[in-house]
Amino acid sequence: MDILILLIPLSLAIVGVIAWIMLWATKSGQFDDLEGPAHSVIMDDDTPHPPRAAPEDEATPPS
């Protein structure tokens, strides 16, 4: 029975930490868009990206 003196406050502290983490995640916007990342994985993006032009400063040797 003496172990309950340790386990009850410890479990309440763990529940408090979990509640604080959930509140922080909600306030910081972690649950704002739940379907967007799932749809972006299956979307097929067939548009080619334009090629990057090489910077001219690197193409010419310094004089």
Query: Any idea what the radius of gyration is?
Result: 27 Å
> What class, by secondary structure content?
mainly alpha
The biggest beta sheet is recorded as: none
Query: Which percent bin holds the helix content?
Result: 55-70%
Oligomer: single chain
Report the span from N to C terminus: 85 Å
Count of alpha/pi helices: 3
Low-confidence stretches: none
Average predicted local confidence, pLDDT: 82
Tell how many strands the DSSP assignment holds: 0
Order of helices and strands: HHH
Shape: elongated
Strand percentage, roughly?
under 5%
Features:
single chain; 63 residues; mainly alpha; 3 helices
Architecture overview:
The structure is a single chain. The model has no long low-confidence stretch (mean pLDDT 82). The protein is mostly helical. It is elongated. The chain has three helices and no strands.
Write the layout of secondary structure elements.
Elements: H1 3-27, H2 36-42, H3 56-59
Summarize the structure.
It contains three helices and no strands. With 63 residues, the chain is mainly α. The chain is elongated and about 80 Å long.
